[in-house]
Specification:
Helix content is 42%, strand content 9%. By secondary structure, it is an alpha/beta fold.
């Protein structure tokens, strides 16, 4: 996550927030009407025509599935998935009710089970019982939409598993256990993130969802990349969920030794330094998360759970490193992380004067290079400290200077 891009997006959104709220007000009125109409008591008594998609829309009141999927579509889309998600529906092609197998073979068995599951999910939402929600047999998108409809201040209106994973990854909230967990836990992680952000904590969940899709990070990118896309450098990179890093052992070669060159070449075009800096920031933060998770896992696997709990990212840039970790004996370990899209091999990175000073001064300072950051199995090279003692095979080339001019 690039905090500067996030803040810029928040400024842009807050400038438009009043118009967004005004445009969405009619949707919220329909939502209120729907939950007033479909109380748990009415749900318990509703007939199949009141529930199943495929029947004509009633002149008064609502059809439950039509209302959830179509009339409230603007408050979170579930229309992309097939009708079997509702458990039972009327097929206009077959002119009969079709039932999802897990609910039973006939309407008299399946429909009471579905009604009870809806009543149960509303009760679990009212209790904020995430375990009961996860175990409820309704399909994930359907129960997610029900929860966001009845409890819009508690349950986030994002229903696609792919989108949830993408948002978690872009905010560096993904963990191995979270990515493989039920959608309700993923939504709660995003809500917790929102509520700890100084800007977004005052937003409704509906506004937060609107922001995620339309401002930052936006919808997940499509796979059909356009050749010579002028916006390519401005799109957020797609990081695979739940990456499994592999440690590689490499030798530092002489600068004159022939080797593959993985540097990005710009040809005759003028380089866009601002776009490159944005991309490097995003790649770097993802690399830091991977190393952070690696260090915690290393210590946990060694039985050092207390030390693992203390591993953290450096709070300030002036500290001169990215990750504060430990050796198994408790010795502090300072890690500077550099990240690249490139395959394993030659690597170039920028090092600030402060980072170089810290490399010279701090005991147990390490540099980790994360290669292939956009792949599901990134490679991590633990160099040690290539600056102290000085390694003549490591070239340091000054590329910028701070200039001070006194004037009167």
């Amino acid at each position: 996550m690039n905090i500067h891009q996030l803040r810029e997006a928040q400024v842009s959104f807050e400038n438009s927030m009043e118009k967004v709220m005004e445009a969405r007000a009619p949707l919220h009125e329909i939502r209120e009407q729907f939950i007033r109409y479909f109380t748990p008591a009415r749900i318990n008594q509703m007939q199949i025509q009141d529930y199943a998609l495929g029947y004509s829309k009633p002149e008064t009141g609502f059809n439950f599935c039509y209302g959830i999927e179509r009339q409230l579509d603007g408050l979170g889309r579930i229309r992309g998935s097939r009708a079997p998600k509702f458990g039972i529906y009327f097929s206009s092609r077959d002119q009969r009710l079709l039932i999802t197998k897990k609910w039973g073979a006939i309407e008299e068995i399946a429909f009471p089970k579905i009604k009870q599951a809806i009543i149960d999910i509303i009760a679990a939402g009212n209790r904020n019982d995430l375990e009961a929600i996860a175990n409820n047999p309704l399909s994930p998108m359907f129960k997610g939409k029900i929860l966001a409809t009845y409890f819009p201040d508690t349950f986030l209106n994002v229903f696609s598993e792919e989108h949830l994973n993408y948002f978690l990854i872009q905010f560096n909230l993904d963990t191995e256990s979270l990515i493989t967990s039920d959608a309700v836990y993923k939504k709660r992680a995003l809500v917790d993130f929102k509520n700890t952000d100084a800007v977004m904590q005052h937003w409704s969940l509906d506004l937060f969802s609107y922001f995620l899709y339309n401002y930052y990070p936006g919808r997940p990118p499509k796979n059909n990349q356009v050749e010579n896309d002028p916006l390519a450098r401005y799109r957020l990179p797609y990081f695979p969920p739940n990456p499994i890093p592999t440690v590689v052992s490499l030798n530092i070669l002489s600068p004159t030794t022939p080797q593959s060159n993985n540097e990005r070449r710009t040809g005759g075009a003028n380089p866009d330094y601002e776009a490159e800096a944005r991309e490097l920031k995003l790649l770097g933060e993802r690399g830091e998360k991977i190393v952070l998770d690696m260090e915690r896992k290393r210590l946990k696997d060694a039985g050092k759970t207390r030390l693992a709990a203390q591993v953290e990212k450096a709070k300030y840039d002036y500290e001169g490193y990215d990750i504060y970790s430990f050796e198994e004996d408790g010795t502090p370990k300072y890690i500077e992380v550099k990240t690249t899209r490139a395959n394993v091999g030659k690597v170039n990175f920028f090092l600030s004067a402060n980072e170089l000073r810290k490399a010279m001064d701090l005991a147990n300072y390490h540099v980790y290079i994360v290669f292939e950051i956009l792949k599901a199995q990134p490679k991590v090279w633990m160099i040690g400290n290539p600056f102290n003692p000085e390694n003549t095979n490591v070239l340091k080339i000054p590329v910028s200077y701070k200039v001070t001019i006194n004037a009167k």
